[in-house]
Amino acid sequence: MVEYRIDRRSGVATYLQIVQQTKQALRMGLLEPGDRLPTAREVVEATAINPNTVLKAYRELEREGLVEARRGLGTFVRATLGTGPADSPLRGELADWARRARAAGLDREDVAALFTSVLKEHFEGEDDR
Q: Are the beta carbons of 17 and 10 closer than 8 angstroms?
């Protein structure tokens, strides 16, 4: 089951953080069709956010066709994203790179900026599809 981490200083709306973290778990193969998402109550207890925020995130995921709410049972994954399982060799290579970046003195924001720059360079225009 996914555990949401809310960063109140990120500038990203809380419900969008839940949506993004759910999508990341789907891409990484940590969530698969049939898996149940935590209930709104469970998320509220773990993160101290408003239950309506959780429900808004789940509605957005449902609108995108990724999850479905089953009355009285919870919210379940309907579809997956991507093909990059958590145990991919690429993940290990990326983890090694992140360790080297940290050892070289880069902080989280430096690494994020560098990675975003490389993504833009190699995946330019794919968001338009």
A: yes
